[in-house]
Design brief:
transmembrane transporter activity, D-Maltodextrin-Binding Protein, domain 2, alpha/beta, 2 domains, 3-stranded antiparallel β-sheet, ABC_Gly_betaine_transp_sub-bd, 51% helix
Length: 335
């Protein structure tokens, strides 16, 4: 009986120690706010970060609504939120760099390890039939394949939707590569949905398609597209100083440079929770993986939380590589 009582007492002490350990761990990391941006990839990563910080590092992590400009401004001026998981930093590079210089912010690592990707694309099934279509010269040579939906005498190039920043760069490159002389006409798809819809329709009927698109996106996760090689390499200064500027009078040909996509944190979070910050700095996705995740989200009408569980289940080698073994074990047990 005494032995049984000792065992019960020891078990009770173990439970008490466990219950006391959690608040201590939480206190070490403290309260953390994470921007849940209003697009799928950012929301997915925000949910992943919250789950890992809570269950792996004992943080009291909370998701709050966010968007690029207001989130970045709030982080600089108010120190909140602590983490912006997906920040396309060129949009407000000067302000972020100033925040870093003033020890308010940190570049914590690349959310997209290859950067965001832009380009002119054609369907993979078309390149299998005509391999030269992987180059711009091949596209021009076979321009008559890409029949305009409203004018069969011309060829269609699907541009970035009107009003988007990429409309400027795509139109400049269209002119620089003299695609009009090859018989192409710019087609405004009207919206992002219109542009993706035109690709889906082409794939449904295995028809030719040529135009601008970007990654990571569900479309490039669903459909095998080939990025056309302009034969120019990347001239980053030309791209920044001319290709992206509305008043550029003489654009030259350049491939799109990768768009930097970082995770930004406040300096206070990085200093207060160095182990959690280290995870944030290591966490990153390839465009191929993110394309596939976004395609799954769209097909299943899933939100960021649903996609988070799918990611943990489907990509264990990816997320476990970001974490020390002891932390990965805690996350696995929480799942």
């Amino acid at each position: 009986m005494k032995g049984l009582m000792k065992m019960k007492y020891a078990a009770a002490l173990t439970l008490l120690a466990a219950s006391l350990a959690t608040p201590v761990a939480a206190q070490d990391c403290g309260e953390v706010t994470i921007a849940d941006m209003n697009w799928n990839s950012a929301s997915l990563v925000a949910n992943i970060d919250q789950f890992i910080l809570v269950n792996g590092y004992g943080c009291e992590a909370e998701l709050i609504p966010g968007d690029t400009m207001p989130t970045g401004t709030s982080m600089i001026e108010k120190g909140q939120p602590d983490i912006a998981p997906e920040m396309w930093t060129n949009v407000m590079k000067e302000a972020i760099d100033k925040g870093v210089a003033e020890n308010r912010l940190r570049y914590a690592g690349k959310m997209l390890v290859e950067g965001g990707e832009e380009g002119f694309w054609v369907p993979g099934y078309l390149v299998e039939k005509y391999p030269e279509l992987s180059t711009i010269e091949g596209v021009k040579k076979h321009a008559k394949l890409f029949t305009h939906p409203e004018d069969p005498d011309t060829s269609a190039f699907y541009n970035c939707p009107a009003g988007w920043g990429c409309q400027i760069s795509a139109a400049h490159l269209f002119n620089a590569m003299e695609l009009e002389d090859a018989g192409f006409t710019l087609v405004d798809p009207g919206s992002g949905a219109g542009l993706s819809g035109s690709i889906a329709k082409a794939f449904a009927q295995e028809e030719p398609w040529f135009g601008y698109y970007w990654a990571p996106t569900a479309i490039l996760g669903k459909f095998k597209m080939v990025k056309v090689d302009f034969g120019s390499g990347i001239n980053e200064q030309e791209f920044l100083n001319c290709t992206t500027q509305a008043d550029c009078a003489n654009p030259k040909v350049t491939m799109y440079p990768p768009s930097p996509v970082h995770t930004i944190t406040t300096e206070s979070f990085a200093s207060q929770a160095p182990e959690a910050y280290e995870y944030i700095s290591k966490r990153g996705f390839t465009n191929s993986d993110m394309n596939a995740l976004l395609a799954w989200m769209e097909e299943n009408q899933a939100d960021g939380e649903d996609a988070m569980y799918y990611f943990f289940e489907t990509y264990p080698n990816v997320w476990q590589s970001w974490l020390p073994a002891s932390v990965a074990k805690k996350v696995s047990e929480a799942l």
